[in-house]
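FAQ: What does a ligand-bound record look like?

Like this one, built around pyridoxal-5'-phosphate:
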Amino acid sequence: MRTIYMDNNATTAVDPDVLEEMLPLLKELYGNPSSMHTFGGQVGKHVALARERVAKALGAQPEEIIFTSCGTESDNTAIMSALQAQPEKKHIVTTRVEHPAVLNLVQHLEKKGYEATYLNVDEKGRLDLEELKNALRKDTAIVSIMFANNETGTIFPIKEIGEIVKEKGILFHTDAVQAVGKEPINVQELPVDYLALSGHKLHGPKGVGALYVRRGTPFRPFLRGGHQERGRRAGTENVASIVALGKACELASLNMKAERTTVKALRDRLEDGLLKAIPDAIVNGDTDNRLPNTTNIAFKYVEGEAILLLMDGHGICASSGSACTSGSLEPSHVLRAMGVPFTYAHGSIRFSLSRFTTQADVDFVVDELPRIIKRLREISPYRNEAAEKPACTC
Ligand code: PLP
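The answer part, i.e. the structure of the complex:
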């Protein structure tokens, strides 16, 4: 059975060209880039090239790039750096729909004495910029708002947001983990101070990320130890993965224009095909302003987990918008924040495509899924409208 992989917002396949570039660093080029000898120095040159490539993909300077272990570390580093650099400021602004890499940190910080404002979103997952303006205070240390949502693909107006935040002289971080490689990004035109990205979302390996820190922005290291990354992130570099991230960024930039057309066309074919074949299905998120590879579709009256299970039986990989909490299937925090009705939210599936998705993959899903949904609806306990509200929300 072949695997049809439509879960690229969870992780992507390493591009063969990326793999080829990283392999020598795992084989013969195993020196430590901090070593004084030529052998280590050779490796250092590869790290320097990777830094240049990542910087170029963002319109940044190489010195503004810090390599990290993942998107989560980049997000945590940015927020903690802003807080440590301004100890007198105890307020954080973020949104209700951030990835846990930001949300769980901010919730943790609230327990440590910080105050947080979580901005709401409307039914399409959009922010109200007036609410943002009203949330900013004299003691706001940082605003952290994602570039694009991982579940719905909804894109936030980062330029406008940044202008509002910077006008007040507040530090601004954007979690661009889902956007880098999919959306054109140029930090020279974006008023952001920190920007996080992750290798495995753009056909690089897992376990490597980067944080862009605009020159002159206050910075305090998250990991302390050796002097790697100019003292901004201690620990011997994950050299092979850093090199891979550099190549992945280069490929993403080279292919972005074409992929934004081809991947979007496949996503639209999938979405249109499913909506045509399956009654009572709606798209979650802002369809006018969305990542080109993502569609989040709610199938009324069915459980997302049941859909995933049956799709898995046909080799189709996607992801649901529910999280199993203490026995009850709670819709995701993103769909809840958007106010998606219970009978839809529970049956929400995220399909996320990539440069490796084919038309045959899309057509296979459009052919199989209507039968799966029909089967599940025949046995669904939610068929009855009275079950509009969850029995248990514990
Ligand atoms: N931020 C967003 C929006 C994400 O989608 C993810 C991963 O799913 C992360 C942060 C965390 O990235 P990583 O898995 O590299 O820690």
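Follow-up question: can I read anything off the structure? Yes, for example: The two ends are 39 Å apart (CA to CA).
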